[in-house]
Write a structure and sequence with these properties.
The protein has about 400 residues and is an alpha+beta fold. The chain is about 55% helix and about 20% strand. The two termini are about 55 Å apart.
């Protein structure tokens, strides 16, 4: 017969430990001045920028109008005319390997003049257009930027330092660090009446050098939309807890449902404590990580509760504490193997990814450990507490009523 581990002996200690961790998390929230809120929950101006130097400039002096469009390393030039001499010519140029070869191909288009800023033998990986300048070609030069191969990554702290004149800007790295793409949010209260969207690009040019940055996109998010997004996140978490409570109540007894909900609330609070103290950015990715852990935790809890119900049916004469310890012991191998397997996959994400995906993986690692802990010691501990105290309290009430009637 398998040796039964007496988990119930640790229930009081683990309950105290959890309360201490949760209290520390609440304290961390106030000590650290709240969460490190990401750009998803802040009202203001959002701009996506890329640190990419100038490659070449284009100008057009032919008939009709010339319009640029870009897709990766493919540049398209559409030349069109109106009226009696209406016409449309489309020129598509793909990756030529070097900027010189690319500029030479552009120079073959009638009316288009090319002036290179760098050596013609310079290789490039990506082209970039500044959306703050119209892509329509004219007599004024229009600059096309590029990302050199092997470009050194730039830390987000550098951009925060460059934009320090705009209050406390939020900067988030996007994609691979070598692409040097960033999402910048300037908070609404830092935008004065004479603020213009081009001010961010000018500040970056002053810090990194003229022509070294390009604005990929620019959007303004109002405070109402930001608040709506935060409210939706709260409602989503609340609805998740309610649905889990209903499901567990239908499948098991109410005390099991309450224990399951307490366990996932515990997991959520532990993750919140970790996010508060680690200063991990709190954004929609973090919300996704919390919801993922809630689902994983309830799955593990349901497995143990199923085994408790089965063991109670097979050993109706045993004490409930023994039944609880036997059930957890019998499912411990399955819990351990499942958790470790999942953690290996998440650990790979944490090691081989960057940015928000790395934070997502780190939050999952913390949540997986907390999920196993809460299933064994919080959910099961509450069920045992209920079994020991609630029926006894009800029996005591019944005894008191009977005694009152007899007197």
């Amino acid at each position: 017969m398998r040796r039964i581990i007496k988990f119930s002996r640790c229930f009081v200690f683990t309950s105290v430990l959890s309360l201490v961790l949760i209290a520390a998390g609440i304290a961390g929230y106030f000590v650290k001045g709240g969460f490190n809120v990401g750009i998803d929950f802040q009202a203001g101006l959002i701009q996506e920028v890329q640190l990419a130097p100038r490659a070449f400039s284009l100008s057009y002096e032919g008939l009709g109008n010339a319009l640029l469009s870009l897709n990766g390393v493919s540049l398209s030039v559409a030349v069109s005319g109106v009226g009696i001499q209406g016409f449309t010519n489309q020129y598509l140029l793909a990756d030529y390997g070097t900027i010189g070869a690319f500029a030479q191909a552009l120079d073959q288009i009638e009316g288009v003049s090319v002036s290179t800023e760098v050596s013609g033998s310079t290789p490039f990986a990506l082209l970039a257009l500044d959306t703050q300048s119209t892509p329509a070609l004219g007599s004024e030069p229009y600059w096309v930027h590029y990302l050199p191969l092997g470009a050194a990554p730039v830390p987000t702290e550098e951009l925060s330092r460059a934009l320090s004149g705009f209050g406390n800007p939020a900067v988030q790295a996007l994609g691979d660090p070598g692409e040097r793409r960033f999402m910048i949010r300037i908070q609404e209260d830092a935008i004065s009446g004479d603020f213009q969207t081009t001010d961010i690009g000018r500040a970056l040019d002053e810090y990194f050098g003229e022509g070294e940055t390009v604005v990929v996109s620019s959007n303004y998010v109002g405070s109402r939309f930001s608040k709506t997004l935060a409210d939706q996140a709260v409602w989503l978490l609340s609805a998740t807890l309610l649905l889990i409570l209903l499901y567990a109540s239908i499948r098991f007894k109410p005390q099991y449902a309450v224990g399951a909900v307490l366990a996932i609330i515990h997991d959520g609070l532990i993750m919140v404590a970790f996010i508060a103290w680690s200063r991990m950015e709190f954004n929609t990715t973090t919300i996704a990580a919390i919801l993922t852990i809630l689902g994983y935790s309830i799955n593990d809890t349901i497995v143990i509760f199923d085994r408790i119900r089965e063991t109670r049916h097979n050993f109706p004469g045993d004490d409930f504490e023994l039944i609880l310890n036997r059930s957890i012991t019998e499912t411990l191998g399955r819990t351990f193997i499942t958790t470790v397997t999942t953690m290996l996959a998440v650990l790979s994400l944490y090691i081989f990814t960057t940015g928000s995906m790395k934070d997502f993986a780190l939050a999952l690692l913390v949540g997986l450990i907390s999920g196993v802990y809460s299933t064994i010691f919080i959910a099961s501990g509450f069920v045992l507490f209920w079994d020991r105290h609630v029926p006894r309290g009800r029996a005591k009430k019944e005894t008191e009523v009977i005694s009152a009637l007899e007197t």
